[in-house]
Amino acid sequence: MWRTFVIMIEIIILIIVLRTSFVQYFLSDIQQTVLGWIENVAEIPEQQSLATIRERFFHNNMSLQPHQTDYVVLITDSKESLTKFNERYCKNNDKNPFIYGANLNRLCGHIKDSKLF
Fold it and tell me: What are the transmembrane regions (predicted)?
């Protein structure tokens, strides 16, 4: 009987402590950290696909200017920017001031062959 009473008191104290603002703040901070880790792990396949597109394009194009390589790195940094690039310059044939001609066709081909779209 005494043991049950002590366990009940411990549970009540634990509930009271867990409801304090400091513990809530601490637990929310931990939750945000773990959520960031999970998001990073979930983005690994996407980042690998983007890196593959970038590397395949750079492997076949050694004649790019420095500003062109910076531009390719910028557009292959995220899926959103690559999607915008693909819609605007590959599908709608808009003129791109950085990548044009055969380089644009190769990049669009690599994007089309990728697993992202």
Answer: 6-27
The count of residues in the chain is 117
Entry pTM: 0.67
Amino acid letter, residue 36: G
Taking only the tens place, the pLDDT of each residue in 50-64 is 999 999 898 877 778
**Cα–Cα distance between 103 and 6 in angstroms, integer?**
75
Give me the phi and psi of 6, to 5 degrees please: -65, -40
Our CA angle for 74, 75, 81, nearest 5°, is 120
Query: Closest by alpha carbon to 76, among 66, 67, 86?
Result: 86
| Number of helical H runs and strand E runs in the chain | 6, 0
Q: Cα separation of 55 and 107, whole Å?
A: 11
Q: Which of the four pLDDT bands, split at 50, 70 and 90, describes residue 1?
A: confident
Spatial CB neighbours of 85, under 8 Å, sequence gap ≥ 6: 75, 111
Mean pLDDT value of segment 76-80: 92
- Token readout for 86 is 């693909």
